[in-house]
Amino acid sequence: MGALAWVASTVDLRQAVRALAAAPPWVFLAPAGLLLLNSGIHALRLRVLLRAAGVRAPLSGTWAALVRASALGLALPTGGAEVAKAALVGRLCGAPAPAVAAILVARLLELVPWTLLLWWGLAWGLWAHDRLVAWAALAFSVGFSAVLAGSALLARRDPRPWPPLARAFARRLPPGLQAFGGRLRQALALLGHDRGALLRSGLLTVPFSLVNCLVAWLILRGHGVAASYLDAMAVIPAVDTLIALPITIGGVGVREGLMVGLLAPWGVDEARAVAIGLSRWAAELGRAGVGALLLLVGGLPSRDRDAA
Predict the structure, then answer these.
(1) Is residue 299 part of a domain?
(2) Would 180 be classed as within a structural domain?
(3) Residue 40: inside a domain
(4) Residue 78 DSSP SS3
(5) pTM for this one?
(6) Contact criterion met (CB below 8 Å) for 284 and 34
(7) Model confidence at 93, in pLDDT bands (50, 70, 90)?
(8) Which domain holds residue 195?
(9) φ, ψ for residue 77 (rounded to 5)?
(10) Which candidate, 155, 157, 163, 281, has a CA 20 to 30 Å from the CA of 126?
(11) CA distance 256 to 242
């Protein structure tokens, strides 16, 4: 709310609305369509991982579950959409633990291209555009690199019993949570040993990440910003990493505030920068709108109905 209040008090919102109205229709339609396409890529990645965990889920049903989750996520703090994805995909395939494991591993694999893009942004010159964003990109790139290195080391080791302290903590949990934790650990072990599934899902993170940058670049071009696609690849990952922090609902306010500072070197005034941020949010609303329609027409995913 603080970020949103700062934007409202600093920027002439009437000018921002005029900038939104002046944008061509494709600025809103094409990005929303690309986000729906990206949900399809994400569904394919999850389907590969679910199969490795011993669960079969239809591609169309998985896509529909992800799009529904995007609608629910707009009403939740950042990160809430991931919880909704786990719940809806688990309901679809009738196996919550493998669904959570697949989503966790999918997010972990996304760190590979995203970390490379953050390093690219630093080499490209984020320091000259916005030092705060550059420091954040550096911190996250180092952190993500450490997580990936640690995950790779753990994946090379054979599964071992939990340490005594962890076992003592687990015994204090309700029986249902203990059983879920056991199934989750088993699913993660299955995924960790299927290198082919990890490779296929990992390769699909490349177009998944590039489409995200393409969405932002199209919006920039539609608003008359003379930035190249490589520029978008340098700037957008750092912005999206900060937006992903669970400090606002849907990243509203943070997205627009970051755009003000980052786009200034291209001669973009504050009102137009806010309009660009709102255009990205409008693309998310477009995808969420499709998810809301699916919720209204078909309700929540059902294994009996959607797995057919």
Answers:
(1) no
(2) yes
(3) yes
(4) coil
(5) 0.85
(6) no
(7) confident
(8) 2-293
(9) -60, 155
(10) 281
(11) 12
